[in-house]
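Anyone have tokens for Phosphate-import ATP-binding protein PhnC? Sequence:
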Amino acid sequence: MSTPVIDVRGLVKEFPNGTRALSGVDLQVTAGETVVLLGANGSGKSTLQKCLTKLVRPTSGTVEVLGTEVCTARKREISALRKDVGVVFQKINLVRELSVLTNVIHGSLGRVSSSRNWFACSARSEQREEAMEALERVGLAHVAGRRVEQLSGGQQQRVAIARMLMQQPRVVLADEPVAALDPRAGRAVMDLLWEVTEEQGLTLICTLHQLEIARDYGSRVVALRDGQIDMDTHMSRVAEEELEGLYTAEDEVLHAL
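Reply: yep, here.
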């Protein structure tokens, strides 16, 4: 078996108020693997993802990502790691008043440190061409000059994926990337995310809440319950009632509101 690019062992996270979000999580992910992360609200999904890049500092255990021991790494090492980890957020986090092309060029700032890349009009031709290629890949080259606020939610999430591609990451963390989209736009974004990560051989961990989408797109599924791994298997081996059992009736009602 190949060496994992993500290796989490005995991970515990306890917050100052006494809440234990993670209780001894073990997770290994190999290069190029796609993992769907499931669990009810409060199960520890987001905390686990944030621990991978030290956005949340673990209480104990070890977290190694792309050869960096996250728990003991210094600020410079964490900054270098984050350049190799692309993130697709539920809240899209684009600069709505700026052009689509400028937003995508921003994805290069971690590897091409230049104030010229803050705006498309001043960016170097190499970055402009690369950003246009990324937009072409997500089917939005024709709107490069528009302001982001003029696009639909689904289009904005595709711009966010283009920005992530511009980063040239090795690992992608997607945190409920379609939760705010209508079903049709959501599936278009999921198709695109799966396609580009496969094309480039990227490692993907995608947190989802919608069971139907998880069933359709998931290969390996890792489920958390009360801060612990409750399931780690191939999606084809999971019965529907097992998936539904991950969520309480109260949680499903809250998520639907």
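Confidence is low (pLDDT under 50) at residues 249-257.
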